[in-house]
Design a protein that fits this description.
CATH superfamily of the largest domain: Thiolase/Chalcone synthase
Strand order of the largest sheet: 1-7-6-4-5
Mean pLDDT: 97
Largest sheet: 5 strands, mixed
Radius of gyration: 18 Å
Number of helices: 10
Shape: globular
Bound molecules: oxa(dethia)-CoA
Length: 306
């Protein structure tokens, strides 16, 4: 079944919060945050809807499509602006889309789950689908909790997918979920994000490596053949550990967490966009997109851009 990525867009709040700024109100330091996570600054502001609208418009423009061309909108978000309604119909309304719209919540793997969902929707007669990852994580951060406050940032990334009976950009997928790990990263109603960072770290490396290996196998290629790895941007040390186990050099990884922090569902499209802007996305080459997050959930895909 053919799926083509036709256009991409991103949105980032203007407000930059540096590690030094956080150190003024938290018992932390630029040195600790940079060494333990790789994060130097993050963007804060907007809403899941406003960021999603900007990224969505940009992706449509990039694809050369009009609002009327879109048959379905899937929004991946862990931080919807309201518990009800979903964020997707509001984004669709703001963008002038006249199509079904729904949210998907798979935490930091959300964008990948949304692409997988879109792939299924393309198979049932839809022709062009807008997929947006949009997060307003800062709203659910206790800014006096150094464990979470240093990690998260806001932002959005979007892609337009089109059905193509003659070929595909997505060669394989490996998704999973394990609810026995649900308590490791939570945000209760009316509360804030809370996490067992060490355990998430340990499991993250394992699920990224396992799912990546399965996705590679599904695509019939080896890790050596990958030109690019677009990983979820949670912690540089998780990316290093996973790539080392996969035998892939860090020179092939896309890193944006130094500038944006962990933006959950938005991190993979933001990283892909960054790679493309820097001329690192070349037609015909293989890329691994891989994410993990609360749930726990995980998702890897092998993509060959057309
Ligand atoms: O999107 C998916 C979700 N999340 C993740 O992927 C996060 C996965 N986990 C991680 O990235 C890391 O576990 C963290 C960055 C959260 C923590 O790094 P760590 O190397 O596991 O540090 P730690 O939790 O073992 O803490 C080491 C020390 C502790 O002090 P003691 O007990 O050794 O005295 C912490 O209290 O660092 C302290 N600490 C901090 N110090 C300064 C914890 N947070 C901070 C901080 N600033 N922000």
């Amino acid at each position: 079944m053919g799926v083509r990525f036709r256009g991409w867009g991103i949105a980032l709040p203007d407000r930059i919060v540096t590690n030094d700024e956080l150190s003024k109100t938290l018992d932390t330091s630029d040195e600790w945050i940079t060494e333990r996570t790789g994060i130097r600054e993050r963007r804060i502001g907007g809403s899941a809807m406003s960021l999603g609208v900007v990224a969505g418009h940009q992706a449509l423009e990039d694809a050369g499509f009009a609002a009327a061309d879109i048959d379905f909108l899937v929004v991946a978000t862990t931080t919807p602006d309201r518990l009800c309604p979903a964020t997707a119909p509001m984004i669709a309304h703001e963008m002038g889309l006249d199509c079904p719209a729904m949210d998907v919540n798979a935490a930091c793997s959300g964008f990948m789950f949304a692409v997988r969902t879109a792939q299924g929707l393309l198979e049932t007669g839809n022709r062009r689908i807008l997929v947006i990852g949009s997060e307003h994580l800062s709203r659910w951060v206790d800014w006096s909790d150094r464990n979470m406050a240093v990690l998260l940032g806001d932002g959005a990334g979007a892609a337009v997918l089109e059905y193509d009976p003659d070929g595909t950009d997505v060669l394989s997928f490996c998704l999973g979920a394990d609810g026995s790990a649900a308590d490791l990263l939570t945000c209760e109603h009316g509360g804030y994000f809370d996490m067992n960072g060490k355990e998430i770290f340990r499991r993250a490396v394992r699920v990224v490596v396992d799912s990546a290996e399965q996705a590679l196998k599904g695509a019939g290629i080896t890790a050596d053949e990958l030109s690019l790895v677009v990983p979820h941007q949670a912690n540089i040390r998780i990316i290093q550990a996973a790539l080392q186990r996969l035998g892939v050099g860090m020179d092939r990884a896309v890193i944006t967490l130094d500038r944006y922090g962990n933006t959950s569902s938005s991190s993979i499209p933001l990283a892909y966009y960054d790679a493309r802007e820097n001329g690192r996305v070349r037609p015909g080459e293989y890329a691994l997109l891989t994410g993990f997050g609360a749930g726990m959930t995980w998702a890897s895909a092998i993509v060959r851009w057309s």
